[in-house]
Specification:
With about 350 residues, the protein is α/β, with parallel strands linked by helices. It is built from 13 helices and ten strands. Helix 1 links the parallel strand 1 and strand 2. Helix 6 runs parallel beside helix 7, helix 7 packs across helix 8 and helix 10 packs parallel to helix 11. The longest helix is centred in the middle third of the chain and has 23 residues.
């Protein structure tokens, strides 16, 4: 059995223009001061990491790792959530997602998609240079505008969408395999991989690629009314990353899962700081221990109510309190009798 690692923090929601959130060295000092042991790094801000350079230069990757280690931290994983989103974009979302790409690739979906694919491949190589074993991303979505079958979806549309999604991701998965890194899709609303069934459909299309793994985040399943505990039972062999994020779902006579186009503050389903929502983290951490999850417990802070710095401070202690240091012996070992095959046969009347 393995005790999972943590607490760690995903930096995406904290990076900014003011100290200590505007440089890698400063933000690492801030995170370490709160009690975190690791950071998960987004890869679009060159102030923190130049992704291409980290992919092409082991020396540079070692320098980045050295800055983090000097603060007493480890890099848990890199993230290409925004770049992964651009691997597959339905034309309905072209304008909205253009902001995820550099200006040179906007208003040119084909060039933007090629850029995104290369970015995620760079992430595989950078992860290898940094000595990381897993990577976080989104699948992107070709089918999301058709998530609800009205108007009726044409026959074959869903199959064609997943065939194309797999065609785009297979070379990327192969690159991650070459680099010895698991590519972990965050199953998430807005992605074609948004629940277990869609993940299985994708997995079939990529021929159960060994690197097509999962980032587990229970908050997204609370908002879908999906059983997030059974999900671990079903997919634990593929779960290689863990976002610790809370959520709540409070339906009313006026709104439910779809949220009625309301802001995050006014939705029936919304994300919360750790401990303020409805997720049963005791059960989740128990299952992670049961299934020998060896990765990191990483705070992802998203809350419509609480200040982010308060959420980060409270989150470190919350994760620390929930990590189960696994036992190295059975609780009833005190009553154990010596192993004796002949005695066992006697008890069985053999």
């Amino acid at each position: 059995m393995t005790t999972l690692q943590g607490p760690a923090i995903f930096l995406a929601q904290f990076i900014g223009d003011e100290a200590p959130f505007n440089s890698l060295e400063a933000i690492c000092g801030w995170a370490a001061g709160l009690g975190y042991k690791g950071i998960q790094m987004p890869t679009l801000d060159a102030r923190f990491i130049d992704l291409q350079k980290a992919a092409e230069s082991k020396t540079y990757a070692d320098e980045i790792k050295g800055i983090v280690n000097a603060a007493g931290l480890e890099i848990t994983e890199l993230s290409t959530h925004l770049q992964g989103q651009l691997v597959a974009v339905n034309p309905a979302y072209d304008k909205l997602f253009d902001g995820f790409a550099p200006e040179a690739y906007r208003n040119n979906p084909a060039a933007r998609q090629q850029w995104a694919v290369q970015q995620v491949k760079y992430a595989a190589q950078a992860s290898q240079n940094l000595g990381l074993k897993a990577h976080a991303t989104f699948s992107g979505a070709l089918l999301w505008p058709m998530v609800y079958p009205w108007p009726q979806r044409p026959a074959g549309l869903v199959d064609e969408g997943f065939t194309e999604l797999a065609r785009r991701w297979t070379p990327i998965l192969d690159e991650f395999d070459r680099c010895g890194v698991d590519l972990c899709y965050e199953v998430h609303a807005g992605e074609d991989l948004h629940d277990g069934i869609t993940y299985e459909m994708f997995l079939d299309k990529v021929h159960h690629h060994p690197r097509a793994c999962l980032l587990y985040d229970p908050s997204h399943f609370v908002l879908q009314c999906l059983d997030y505990l059974e999900y671990i039972d079903i997919y634990h062999e593929r779960i290689k990353m863990f976002h610790v994020k809370d959520a709540e779902f409070n339906p009313t006579g006026r709104q439910g899962v779809y949220g009625g186009y309301q802001s995050w503050l006014d939705r029936a389903g919304r994300f919360r700081s750790l401990g303020d929502g409805q997720v049963d983290f005791k059960a989740i951490f128990s299952k992670m221990a049961q299934y020998d999850f060896a990765g990191w417990a990483v705070l992802e802070w998203e809350c419509a109510l609480k200040n982010s710095e308060d959420g980060a401070r409270e989150g470190a202690q919350f994760i620390r309190d929930h990590i189960i240091r696994v036992t190295d012996k059975a609780f009833d070992d005190f009553a154990n009798t010596a192993t004796d095959p002949e005695f066992n046969k006697t008890l069985l009347g053999l």
